[in-house]
Specification:
The chain is an alpha/beta fold. The chain contains 17 helices and seven strands. It has one domain: Glycerol-3-phosphate (1)-acyltransferase (3-Layer(aba) Sandwich), CATH 3.40.1130.
């Protein structure tokens, strides 16, 4: 009988945590976050200043801890993964674990596969951090992938993932909702390429647009520019993830029979990216920048209106900040290329060999 009581208790706990994940799931449209907050429970905890209910904290642990354990098992057990543990990595660990109260942290990285987050995140940090959801990052994922159904939205929401509209532009409210986590002193992570790029180099935009606008999307620049407290911005760069989850080079769809194991993967952290001079120069020339707030109620419609429009001077600032991020990621890429030499991975090996055509049934 004791085992039945244990099973019943476990079932009740599981149901409670699942219910909490569903109840507090992010709304992919963003409407509940802004216009109907007082009427809906779904996104009450998306207000970055609110303390999370205990059941939601439990749901986060139930999702994020097993995912972290599985990710580390895959990358360390089924692949040859090497994390460069130097003073830059130690500095990032300190920022995640012990940065001053209210100090925001923004990490940026290249995006080589659909498993970069959570897999790379799980190996980037020590155990005492990855099993504590409170310390882990907030991230974003496109509506059509991570928020297609309420069940999927519940899972990713419990994993501290918020929706973003792919191609929605700089002025979308979903990016403002994500930025509020930064304003509250949280850790946010973003892939500024805006998509997976499996060429071994920083992508996002292709020529000629990349020459004029840069390779990265400007959303990261906007988040930094209008943060009420300038975040610590830390880049990291990884190699080999494109071989773990390879994509069709034509359609960008994940190939059949993925993931592929026994790959060489490296992860390295860079120095913090300085942007204070860019912000100061802009304010000297154009006056103070407006700042978004952590709480929706504080900023209200005023935040939304300001976020929905930006001047040419503001866009120039976003571009300059994003170029700094791009340069930092390029520097880490160059460092990895120098260290790995001919072993540096570019396109997925299954694509380079042509074997992906067999997987697609075209040969």
């Amino acid at each position: 009988m004791a085992w039945r009581r244990c099973l019943a208790g476990a079932g009740a706990a599981s149901a409670s945590l699942s219910g909490a994940a569903y109840y507090y799931r992010p709304d992919p449209s963003g409407e509940l976050l802004d216009k109907r907050r007082s009427m809906s429970p779904n996104d009450r905890c998306d207000d970055a200043t609110e303390a999370e209910p205990i059941l939601l904290r439990g749901a986060r642990s139930a999702v994020m801890t097993p995912v972290a354990v599985l990710s580390r098992a895959v990358l360390f057990g089924l692949n040859n993964t090497r994390l460069v543990k130097d003073e830059r990595h130690a500095r990032l660990v300190d920022l995640v674990r012990d940065r001053p109260e209210g100090e925001p942290l923004l990490t940026v990285a290249n995006h080589a596969s659909t498993l970069d987050d959570p897999a790379v995140m799980a190996v980037l940090l020590p155990w005492d951090i990855v099993v504590r959801p409170k310390l882990m990052r907030w991230s974003i994922c496109s509506q059509e992938i991570c928020f297609e159904t309420k069940a999927i939205a519940s899972f990713f929401g419990a994993g501290k993932v918020l929706p973003i509209e792919r191609g929605g532009g700089l002025d979308q409210k979903l990016l403002l909702n994500f930025s509020r986590k930064l304003a509250a002193g949280g850790w946010c992570h973003i892939f500024p390429e805006g998509k997976t790029v499996q060429t071994g180099t920083i992508g996002g935009r292709s020529p000629p647009a990349s020459r004029d606008l840069g390779r990265l999307k400007w959303g990261v620049g906007r988040m930094i520019a209008h943060a009420p407290r300038t975040p610590q911005v830390v880049p990291f760069f990884h190699t080999g993830m494109q071989n773990l989850v390879a994509e069709d080079p034509a359609t960008k769809d994940v190939l059949p029979r993925q993931p592929q194991f026994f790959n060489n993967i490296t992860v390295r952290v860079g120095d913090a990216i300085e942007v204070a001079d860019l912000l100061a120069q802009h304010e000297d020339e154009h006056g103070p920048l407006w700042k978004y707030s952590a709480a929706v109620a504080q900023g209200g419609a005023d935040d939304e209106c300001k976020w929905a429009s930006c001047s040419a001077a503001d866009k120039k600032l976003y571009s300059a900040i994003t170029r700094r991020v791009e340069a930092a990621l390029h520097a880490l890429e160059a460092e990895a290329r120098l260290e790995l030499g001919d072993a540096y991975p570019t396109v997925p090996s299954v694509v380079a060999s042509g074997d992906y055509l067999v997987l697609l049934g075209e040969q």
